[in-house]
Specification:
Helices cover about 35% and strands about 25% of the residues. The protein is α/β, with parallel strands linked by helices and about 160 residues long. It has one domain: Response regulator (Rossmann fold, 3-Layer(aba) Sandwich), CATH 3.40.50. A six-stranded parallel sheet has the order 1-3-2-4-5-8, with helices on both faces.
Length: about 160
């Protein structure tokens, strides 16, 4: 089985039984003994970022459906130390997703991934839906491995 097939099998997108059956190797080191929750609707991007984070030494649960990811997070928020979400997602924006994540766990470390140029020069405090949404970081596409490891590692 190729590496791409192995990682594709670990993407959480169908049901909880699929997700549990495809759970990550628990021997992978994690962020403060917790896992990273990664959300991106584009499977190829999701797989690539997941592999990059694993290369940095983190355990990662990846979802391509923000509603499933949010429902899972609400049930298992204590398992996660950091949440990384793409800015543009189906059914809700990445900012809406992060806002809901913060409602479930106000202390969670959060990052947004974006290719939007106009977000490069703003602070990590964004006004979203009449709420100041404080992010721990913004990750810009294209994503470079060393920058990703450094950005996530700063929050350890």
């Amino acid at each position: 089985m190729s590496l791409l097939e192995q990682v594709s099998d670990q993407i959480c997108s169908r049901s909880y039984s699929d997700m549990e059956a495809a759970n990550l190797d628990t021997s992978c080191p994690s962020w403060d003994d917790k896992t990273i929750l990664l959300v991106d609707d584009q499977i190829d991007v999701l797989i690539t970022i997941k592999i990059m984070l694993q290369t940095c030494g983190y355990a990662v649960n990846a979802f391509n459906d923000p509603l499933l990811a949010l429902d899972h997070f609400r049930r298992h928020s204590h398992d996660y130390g950091i949440v990384i979400s793409d800015m543009i997602l189906p059914s809700m924006s990445g900012l809406e997703f992060i806002k809901n994540i913060r409602i479930a766990n106000p202390e969670i470390v959060t990052f947004i991934i974006t290719a939007l140029d106009n977000i490069k020069d703003i602070s990590n405090d964004l006004l979203y839906d009449s709420t100041v949404l404080s992010l721990d970081g913004i990750i810009h596409k294209p994503i470079l491995l060393d920058e990703l490891c450094r950005s996530v590692g700063k929050r350890r």
